[in-house]
Amino acid sequence: MKFPVTTAVLVFANSSHEELLHKPMLKGKLLFDRLTHETLAKVRKSGLPYFHVSEKEQVGKSFGERFSNAIQTVFDQGFENIITIGNDTPQLQTRHLIETEKALKAGKTVLGPSLDGGFYLMGIHKSKFDAENFKKLPWQRFSLLNRISVLLDQTEALVYKLPALGDLDNLNDVKRLTSFRKSISSTLVHLLALIIGLENKIIDAVSGQFSSIYLHQIFNKGSPILLHS
Description:
The chain is of the alpha/beta class and 229 residues long. It has one domain: Spore Coat Polysaccharide Biosynthesis Protein SpsA, Chain A (Alpha-Beta Complex), CATH 3.90.550.10. It contains 8 helices and 6 strands; from the N terminus they run βααβαβαββααβαα. The protein has helices spanning 16-22, 28-46, 63-75, 94-105, 131-135, 144-154, 171-177, 186-219, and strands spanning 7-12, 50-53, 81-85, 109-113, 119-125, 159-161. It has a 6-stranded mixed β-sheet with strand order 2-1-3-5-4-6, with helices on both faces. A hairpin with a 5-residue loop joins strand 4 and strand 5 (119-125). The N and C termini lie far apart (96 Å). Residues 209-216 and 218-229 have low confidence and may be disordered.
């Protein structure tokens, strides 16, 4: 007997164009396009139905409103559980999604903590979701994980936590991820190395320019500059 699918994945991820407005970096379009491509591939591999919501489909003024409205929209499609993820956690694997679905079936709420104080994944049953309360959370702030944990405690949810992973917001995150080559694709490893290499070339070029100006000022034996008349 085949049971109906009750869990869907919500991929809440903007286009590369929109991402670059908030996370500017060299080769950013290539990076964000690749992140979205790999994220969707991992979701498809899980076999779960999914919804990809970019800025084109989002409704609301604040991040909290847009994210909460997207979750509610998926619940309105008739699903009992939702697994929410973004596209900025390259170490997220299909097994994390499968593990989350199993925990949801066991009546648990799932959080995947991110290193910046937020979360990269949330698995939640519709009975534990209150859109108005979620909109009020301190989204995109370091205190988010703590605040959402408190909110879930108030619903008497049994919280199951996945391993903490890092997300990708800036060049420091790019550099950190290169230390975890075994957990990300070789294509992404090469792209991250390219970004770091280009950034280093710019830094070297700027440093060299300042050094040349400084040396010119020291060794220039011409007439002194008249500072005051």
